[in-house]
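Customer escalation, tier 2.

The customer says the design service returned an amino acid string that "doesn't look like it belongs to this structure." They asked us to rerun it and document both sides in this ticket. The original structure tokens are below, unchanged.
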């Protein structure tokens, strides 16, 4: 089970400097708790501000993980160039960014054959496209709808129809039709309803508030118990 923390420093209280500090503290906490991936998703920052924040995050992650076998990897939102410049582990792409294949080609030219590429998806078509373009995994959202905004969710059945089942474990015709790329669940997920995503064959759980507003170690421990 993979855990994917997506950042939003604006949710922390205080001044801009205090929010930045709060985010870096949470990143360190997430690494100590065994979070697998962190997506630095601070879209409002300038390129220079994002690079400086990313470099600080890389430095923290290099030193914060207690168990080297569970080293936390950092993804930069959209900016393949900045991810490579600051020594991040990968890039997280949206549907309006360059393709996973193009991002991987850029990384390869920089000598980074270990570079990871994740993609945001909101439909079966986008999942298939990300898979065909060589993404390492996708984050599918939103699983659960938002009553406050009227945003509908994809739903567990649709998620189950796409979720990763290793080829050697496939038993039914429906399972044979599923993607071979790992699919992480995102959107409205709580500790209580995460089990339903896991039962629907999610390869992992992604979240902002799930990890950012709670004790990360307690969340990870609870989810691993499912």
């Amino acid at each position: 089970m993979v855990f994917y923390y997506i950042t939003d420093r604006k949710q922390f209280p205080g001044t801009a400097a205090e929010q930045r500090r709060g985010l870096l503290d949470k990143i360190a906490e997430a690494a100590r708790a065994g979070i697998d991936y962190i997506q630095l998703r601070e879209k409002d920052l300038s390129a220079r501000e994002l690079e400086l924040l990313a470099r600080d995050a890389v430095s923290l992650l290099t030193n914060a993980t207690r168990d080297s076998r569970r080293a936390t990897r950092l993804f930069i939102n959209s900016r393949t160039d900045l991810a490579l410049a600051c020594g991040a582990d990968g890039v997280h792409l949206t549907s309006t960014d360059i393709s996973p294949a193009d991002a991987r080609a850029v990384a390869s030219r920089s000598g980074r054959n270990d570079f990871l590429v994740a993609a945001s998806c909101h439909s079966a078509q986008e999942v298939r496209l990300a898979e065909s373009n060589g993404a390492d995994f996708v984050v599918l959202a939103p699983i659960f709808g938002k009553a406050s905004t009227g945003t509908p969710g994809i739903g567990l059945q649709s998620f189950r129809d796409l979720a990763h089942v290793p080829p050697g474990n496939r038993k039914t015709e429906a399972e044979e039709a599923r993607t071979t790329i790992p699919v992480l669940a995102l959107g409205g997920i709580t500790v209580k309803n995460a089990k339903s995503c896991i039962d629907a064959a999610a390869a992992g759980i992604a979240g902002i508030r799930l990890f950012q507003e709670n004790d990360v170690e307690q969340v990870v421990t609870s989810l691993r118990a499912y």
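Tier 2 assessment: The sequence is consistent with the input. The mean pLDDT is 91. The chain has one domain: 2-224. Sent an explanation to the customer and offered a walkthrough call.
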